Amino acid sequence: MTTETLVVLIAVAVVILGGGLAYLIAKPRRELPPPDVMDELTEREIEHPELREVDLDEVEELEAGVLEEEPAAPAAPTLERPETPQGRLARLRSRLSRSQTSLGRGLLSLLGGGDLTEDQWEEIEDTLLAADVGVGPTTELVTNLRARLAAEGVKDPERAKAVLRDELLGLVGPSLDRTMHTTGDDNLPGVVLVVGVNGTGKTTTVGRLARVLVAEDRSVLLGAADTFRAAAADQLETWGARVGVPTVRSHEGADPASVGFETVKQGIADGVDVVLVDTAGRLHTKSGLMDELGKVKRVIEKQAPVTEVLLVIDATTGQNGLTQARVFGEVVDVTGIVLTKLDGTAKGGIVIAVQRELGVPVKYVGLGEGPDDLAPFDPADFVDALLEA
Ligand SMILES: Nc1nc2c(ncn2[C@@H]2O[C@H](COP(=O)(O)OP(=O)(O)OP(=O)(O)O)[C@@H](O)[C@H]2O)c(=O)[nH]1
């Protein structure tokens, strides 16, 4: 071999080796699979990639987000578990006494000092009237109190307080039937019609009553027969949804009687225990609308008897609340009263006045803005809270 041939051979070898090296450097390196895939690879598979069951291209696509993830199933709504009604008044009692202090303190301070002068008896009367007890019940209470304190020769403030408690309790009516009638006859649902002026807390009350019933393991259906305002139906639906209770509703301006009818019809078909129907109470002075309320009840009763008509009254409206009570009482047979916003007034005597006015018992009281701040009314607890001050 000549020297020239040797030089040519060396040059060819250098070119080949250089090209190979350049190819190796330029070749994209395959990354190691991510750690979780690594976990699945055995040592043998790492040494012999051809044996791998995991396709690295697929892994890369996954990394690049090419393969779409399975959409997550929608989370089931978490239902609230409402508080049982039994313990509620105990929890809310302080709100009652807070709102009643002027009445309780006023009476006790006067009665604590032995024999009363005429002026002091007048002061007692004024205190009762200022607390919205009403003229008739106030006169009755003062007359009875005077007679008993004199007859029993009461001088001791503790004894005077006990007599006052007894007399107040007598006025509140400890033996009135305060059960809410929610059981229908012949396998029909109980039907509760909730009426009252707008803004008194009617829709809130329907929502809260649904919670009371759910806490007692009763099945419930709501009817949004307040069709004046779409928002009222939305509000009701939201209340129900929180505790898994459905709502029957229609469009704004629909006939409230037909919504009531459809709700009870569905309640019967679904076999629910109780149907609660919210109604519109706008402009209670307009006879047309009040007639309409009467119609709602009549039409509902083509399906099933109404077992309870609850009138919602705002305790802070005083005498105006009594006027409302009177008007509603003329249109539908009110069977129970729900007194809302009792936490916001010192005029707790309205309980006594409104019962007298309608001859119907207060069955529930609203004592706050929380979802379970509606308590069954208990006369003894009420009077005790009144005199706690
Ligand atoms: N402090 C207090 N507020 C209450 C009570 N009950 C209801 N409310 C409030 O009163 C306001 C009116 O309640 P709604 O239920 O909307 O009154 P409504 O009578 O149904 O009026 P519409 O829905 O407009 O028909 C709301 O802000 C409630 O939170 C209560 O017992 N105490």
Automatic annotation (TrEMBL):
Membrane topology: Peripheral membrane protein
EC number: 3.6.5.4
Keywords: Cell membrane, Cytoplasm, GTP-binding, Hydrolase, Membrane, Nucleotide-binding, Receptor, Transmembrane, Transmembrane helix
A single Gene Ontology CC term: cytoplasm
Reaction(s) this enzyme catalyzes, per UniProt: GTP + H2O = GDP + phosphate + H(+)
One of the GO biological process terms: SRP-dependent cotranslational protein targeting to membrane
Sequence intervals crossing the membrane: 6-26
Record carries keyword Cell membrane: yes
Residues that coordinate or bind GTP: 196-203, 278-282, 340-343
Residues annotated as domain SRP54-type proteins GTP-binding: 361-374
Compartments reported by the entry: Cell membrane; Cytoplasm
Top-tier EC class: hydrolase
Biased composition (Low complexity): 72-87
One term of GO molecular function: GTP binding
Pfam families: SRP54 (PF00448), SRP54_N (PF02881)
Region (Disordered): 68-87
Stated family: Belongs to the GTP-binding SRP family. FtsY subfamily.
Subunit comment: Part of the signal recognition particle protein translocation system, which is composed of SRP and FtsY.
Function, as annotated: Involved in targeting and insertion of nascent membrane proteins into the cytoplasmic membrane. Acts as a receptor for the complex formed by the signal recognition particle (SRP) and the ribosome-nascent chain (RNC).
PANTHER family named in the record: SIGNAL RECOGNITION PARTICLE RECEPTOR SUBUNIT ALPHA
Name the UniProt record assigns to this protein: Signal recognition particle receptor FtsY
Organism per entry: Aeromicrobium phoceense
Record gene name: ftsY
